[in-house]
C-alpha cells in the first residue's frame, strides 16, 4: 500500500492524479500542513466499513500475520453418553 500526501491546492489542480494514487493507497489531503481529508477507492472504503460476518473474513484481514496468537491446546476427552 502506498500512502500519498498532497496539499489542497495540488488536489484542486491535479484531481486525476489524486484519483489514480487512491487506487494504490490512501491519499491524505492537507490544509495548511495538517491532514484534513482522506481520498480512497470505493472498494477500499467498502472493505473498511463492511461488517465481518464469519471467521474466514476475520482471519483474512490485513495485518493478521503480525499478531502473535498461540492458544493452549484443548484436551477434550470423549465420555459415553448416559441414556438412563
UniProtKB/TrEMBL annotation:
The record's listing under InterPro entries reads:
Antitoxin_Phd/YefM, YefM-like_sf
Superkingdom in the source lineage: Bacteria
Q: Which SUPFAM superfamilies match?
A: YefM-like
Which Pfam families does the entry link to? PhdYeFM_antitox (PF02604)
Its family remark reads: Belongs to the phD/YefM antitoxin family.
User: What this chain does, per the record?
Assistant: Antitoxin component of a type II toxin-antitoxin (TA) system.
**Record-given protein name:** Antitoxin
Species in which this protein is naturally found: Duganella qianjiadongensis
Amino acid at each position: 500500500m502506498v500512502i500519498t500526501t498532497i496539499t489542497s491546492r495540488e488536489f484542486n489542480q491535479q484531481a486525476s492524479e489524486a484519483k489514480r494514487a487512491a487506487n494504490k493507497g490512501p491519499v491524505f489531503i492537507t490544509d495548511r500542513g495538517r491532514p484534513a481529508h482522506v481520498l480512497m477507492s470505493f472498494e477500499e472504503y467498502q472493505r473498511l466499513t463492511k461488517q465481518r460476518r464469519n471467521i474466514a473474513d476475520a482471519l483474512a484481514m490485513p495485518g493478521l500475520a503480525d499478531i502473535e496468537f498461540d492458544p493452549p491446546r484443548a484436551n477434550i476427552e470423549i465420555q459415553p453418553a448416559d441414556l438412563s
